Amino acid sequence: MLQLNDTHAYLEPHQEMFWENGTTKYRKAGGFAKIAGYLKQLRHEKLDAVLALDCGDTFHGTFPAVASKGEVMIPVLNELGLAAMTAHWEFAYGPEQFRKLTAMLNYPILAINVYDKTTDKLVFEPYTLKEVNGVKIGIVGIACNIVDKTMPPHFSEGIYFTLGNEELPGYIQKLRQEEKVDLIVLISHLGFPQNMKLLSEVEGIDVCLSSHTHYRTSKAIKQGQTIVMESGCHGSFLGRLDLIIEKGRISNYKHELVVVSDKLPDDAHMQELVQQAVQPYHKELSQTVGETATVLDRNNILESTMDNFLLQSMLHATGAELAFSNGWRYGAPIVPGSVTLNDLYNIIPMNPPIQTVELTGQELQYMLEENLEKTFSPDPYAQQGGFVKRCMGLRAFIKIEAPKGTRIQKLFVNDEELDLQRTYKASFVTEQGVPSAYGTNRADAGIKAIEAMKQYLNNHSPVHADLLGTFTAV
Fold first, then answer.
1. What does the alpha-carbon distance between residue 327 and residue 453 come to, in Å, rounded to a whole number?
2. Which candidate, 220, 207, 211, places its Cα nearest to that of 58?
3. Model pTM greater than 0.90?
């Protein structure tokens, strides 16, 4: 069994962060030519006794994908011979475009938890059946459930999402009793903590391929009798699970987190498809727009150098006191040296407009506490974010383990203690930067994120975007 998850449309090799010798290292990884090459090699070695599955966040995350509303990915994905996938950022183009993409794929999108608002009927198939090497396998999908809760409204127009925990037992029963499967595989985009809780409540899943949280499970985890794995992001890793099935049960297994490195072979035909996909955008995206002296990385939960660069650019463009953006997980690192336009789009591929808003100190405190709860809630089902909201212009000392609404111990805005009654001018991007429930006098700043970063690079190259201790756990 081979898992792809959270590739975020990274068609070509790119920089990736690795932990080695007690520190972080950066080198090239990923690329669909190598993913296809490894998969072809594996199918040859195992005489096609291979099941390849995609857990979603596949059609969004790079400029070619966003510019084509995901369509550039279709020929590449259809070449892989996947059995099924589920979804999350695929909804960014709106449900109708996602349905169009689904119709173009040669494998099904699965989701037991996405419903039409008018009919209450499922939008996608809940499961599919595959026979691999004489083993009958039921594959069930759960899409990310936060699409209609924290993401822009157009993502979920006409549809709604449940957690899927109430529906799952019924499908397990149907697959066992009616379909007579030997093995049930769950492809879930709920996130690793959520999936572990779900599997503690619902028995009967043999293997869970988790995604959304970008965990790198170097060793498969057991939750009860279920084998669970999640395999990084950006296509830098593949999860491989070798199963021995005897009398309809897993008698033994071996897991490997495969690094998609230069050691893997390139598939020549996939390389051609990738080149065809990126060629229309290559000249524009390869432009050098500045330099960075700092590694721009997004792999930290409390604060990141990549987002500090984005936030610095927003403050520079607007003159606001504060800046806020999403706690996105995706976005390949940018190493010191030249920065290209492609790098900027990898930071924020949708290129949203920068907006301004006025926030009271009280609203600021509530907004940050709400975000910390969505990130660190002790109940995995209540976790609805990515990393902590990215902020600049403030410094918060927090107790991560504290109860909801009490995590902030002390909050400063530009070195002065927060005044609950004072109004602060803030800049932000997207609905998640400053949710609509907070602030007054929202206005468009007249500049989009990419242009703001280009202007900042033009004035400040090489860029320095060090960690500032914006959120300090105490």
1. 18
2. 211
3. yes
